[in-house]
Amino acid sequence: MNSHYKISIIGAGQIGTVLSHLAAMRQFGNVVLYDIIKDLPQGKALDLMEASRIDGFDTSVIGTNNYEDIRDSNLVIITAGVPRKPGMSRDDLLTVNAKIIRTVAENVSEFSPEAIVILISNPLDAMVTLFQKVSGFSHNRVMGQAGVLDSSRFCSFIAWELGVSVKDVNAMVLGGHGDTMVPLVRTANVNGISVMDLLIKKYGDEKKANQVIESLINRTRMAGGEIVKLLKTGSAFFSPAMAATAMAEAILRDEKRILPVCAFLNGEYNVDGYYMGVPAVLGASGVEKIVEISLNNVEKDAFIQSADHVKQLVLDMKKLNLI
Questions:
Q1: Cα separation values, 297 from 40, 186, 300, Å
Q2: Most buried of 99, 168, 198, 280 (most Cβ within 10 A)?
């Protein structure tokens, strides 16, 4: 990996801080942490740098309130925006975060016009759409982090239910990053063994197994809200930061990993002209290929329902003259 890569993280909140630490520890390159709050990113960057001897990284981390410091970044990760509060959905953040992302997009396109961009801000699919349209970046260089996180949550819940290592669980979540996301049960497995077969074996009853998997699906869909309710003053930050780090690593190291990400669809999955969570090959060019997998009729219907929700969010932005 090129040690001279420059990674800029927009937003020095909880997610941005964890991201900065992970990027430094994995020595992705030099890190710039930006925030509008005076002295906040500088203080967090200094704290991180003073741990460099302990963590053993030689890359630099600087904090700034000046967008000009993100100039010529190779990768930009955007966490900026207002987090959810208890009782709020991701969609409730649409208007306030759209204004923030528009400003971010204008500055990223000015100072880092060749960067690949990963967005984490909610409502995710709408914010990715907004950033791409404002920045004018090619679709393959703008993507959203959601599917990696949602899939990790689904895998974790399955592992806990079955009492097996989460390292052996493979399950994918597609669709929009919201209540209409589509966890794929049919292909979920533990080292190749069907999750449903294992649940039926555990409970000795197919009806009970179906009830359990439905509860895991619902928990996955509401997982972010569950954490917001517990934290009361913020939203999840460790897991989103780890998910974005996996995406960043795939891009910076040109790993060609197939990961579920919010990517632009040009007819794939019968969706044209919208960003949605789908499996994609991530490499040095960003989203290098959309991987179109076969869905059964139930999965197709769920995916289209999720796509309709994303389309409505984009329409709402247009009505509000946000896009």
A1: 50, 12, 5
A2: 280
Print the domain residue range for 278.
Answer: 147-323
Asked if 72 contacts 297 with a C-beta cutoff of 8 angstroms, the reply is no
Q: Which backbone phi and psi does 276 adopt, to 5 degrees?
A: -145, 160
177 carries an active-site annotation: yes
The residue out of 130, 146, 162 marking a domain boundary is 146
Rounded Cα distance between 63 and 23, Å, is 14
> For residue 159, is it within any domain?
yes
203 and 250: one domain?
Answer: yes
Q: Which CATH number characterizes residue 69's domain?
A: 3.40.50.720
> What does each of the 323 residues of the chain score in pLDDT, given as a tens digit?
556 899 999 999 999 999 999 999 999 999 999 999 999 999 999 999 999 999 999 999 999 999 999 999 999 999 998 876 787 776 788 888 999 999 999 999 999 999 999 999 999 999 999 999 999 999 999 999 999 999 999 999 999 999 999 999 999 999 999 889 999 999 999 999 999 999 999 999 999 999 999 999 999 999 999 999 999 988 999 999 999 999 999 999 999 999 999 999 999 999 999 999 999 999 999 999 999 999 999 999 999 999 999 999 999 999 888 88
Can you give the length of the chain in residues? 323
If we measure between CA atoms, which residue out of 23, 11, 149, 35 comes closest to residue 74?
23
* DSSP SS3 for 55: helix
Same domain? 215 vs 228: yes
Domain count, the chain: 2
Do 187 and 166 share a domain, yes or no? Answer: yes
Q: Domain boundary residue among 120, 146, 172?
A: 146
pTM value is 0.95
**Choice among 4, 139, 177, 309 that is catalytic:** 177
